[in-house]
Amino acid sequence: MTCTAAIVLNPRIIVTAGHCITERDGTTRRYNLSFQPGYQTGTDLGRFRATVWAVGSKQSFTHESVQEASKDWVILFLDRTPAGVQPFSLSNPSLKALELLERQILLPAYSSDIVNAQILSVDPACTVRRSVWDSLIHTSTARPGSSGAPLLMREGAGYAVVGIHTASMFASDEAGHVAKFIGNQAISSWMFADTARALARQLDSAPLQTVNMADY
C-alpha cells in the first residue's frame, strides 16, 4: 500500500494513517516499511527504513467502530536523518478557528489514481466544515494514495499540521445502505500530538540510539 506521510517535529518522525500499516488479515505491520521524502515520478531523494513507534488504534478493513476510526493514526521513526528536511510543527486550533480558515487549509497528497504512478498534488483551498465522531470533516480533494496526507495551516513563516486525511465518510439510511457523502475525514493533530512530542524528546536527548517503542 502506498500512502502519504508528513515529517513532524523532528526529521526522523513521520505520521500517517494507521490503516496504511494494516495488513488485509487485520494484523499491524511494524517493520520493513519504507519512506521516501519528496517523492515524485522521476525524482529520487533517498529511501529510509521506518519503524512503528505508536499506533492510535488497531484498524480493520471489514468492520470498524467509530472509536477505532477516530484513532486512525500511526507514528513511525526513520533509521536515519534525511538531509535538508524542515519538519512541520503540530498545531491544535479550536474547531471554530479552523472553520474561520475557509479555503485557506492545504492538503499536499500523493495520488495513485494514475496507472503506475504516484503524483504529488496540492489542494490549496480546503475548508474544515465541522467535527463528527471526534474527526474533522474537510472539503479537500482526496484520492487513493492520499491517506495520511497532512492538513496544513499557515503558522508564521511555515506551516503546521492540524490533522491527517484518512477516509471519505458516508451516511447510511435506516436499512444500513449508504445514503449520502458527508465529507472527507481527518484525524485531528491533538489525537497524536502528545505521543509525537514524547518521541521527539527521546530523539533530542539520544538521537543516535534506538528509541524505546511506545506501549500502544
Please compute the radius of gyration using only Cα atoms: 17 Å
What percentage of the residues does DSSP assign to strands (E)? 35-45%
Instruction: Calculate the terminal CA-CA distance, rounded to whole Å.
Output: 22 Å
Given the structure, what is the number of helices?
Answer: 3
Order of helices and strands: EEEEHEEHEEEEEEEH
Topology, number of strands? 13
Shape: globular
- Low-pLDDT regions: 113-117
The secondary-structure class comes to mainly beta
User: Mind summarizing the main beta sheet?
Assistant: 6 strands, mixed
Please tell me the overall pLDDT: 82
Relative helix content: 10-25%
Can you put this structure into words, describing what you see?
This protein has helices at residues 66-69, 95-100, 193-205; strands at residues 6-7, 13-16, 33-35, 48-55, 74-78, 89-90, 105-114, 117-126, 128-132, 135-138, 150-155, 158-172, 178-188. By secondary structure, the chain is mainly beta. The strands form three sheets. Strands 6, 9, 10, 11, 12 and 13 form a six-stranded mixed β-sheet that branches. The chain has a five-stranded antiparallel β-sheet with strand order 1-2-5-4-3, covered by helices on one side. The chain is globular. Mean pLDDT is 82; it is low at 113-117.
List keywords for this structure.
mainly beta; 216 residues; 13 strands; globular
Write the layout of secondary structure elements.
Layout: E1 6-7, E2 13-16, E3 33-35, E4 48-55, H1 66-69, E5 74-78, E6 89-90, H2 95-100, E7 105-114, E8 117-126, E9 128-132, E10 135-138, E11 150-155, E12 158-172, E13 178-188, H3 193-205
Parallel strand pairs: 6-12
Antiparallel strand pairs: 1-2, 2-5, 3-4, 4-5, 7-8, 9-10, 10-13, 11-12, 12-13
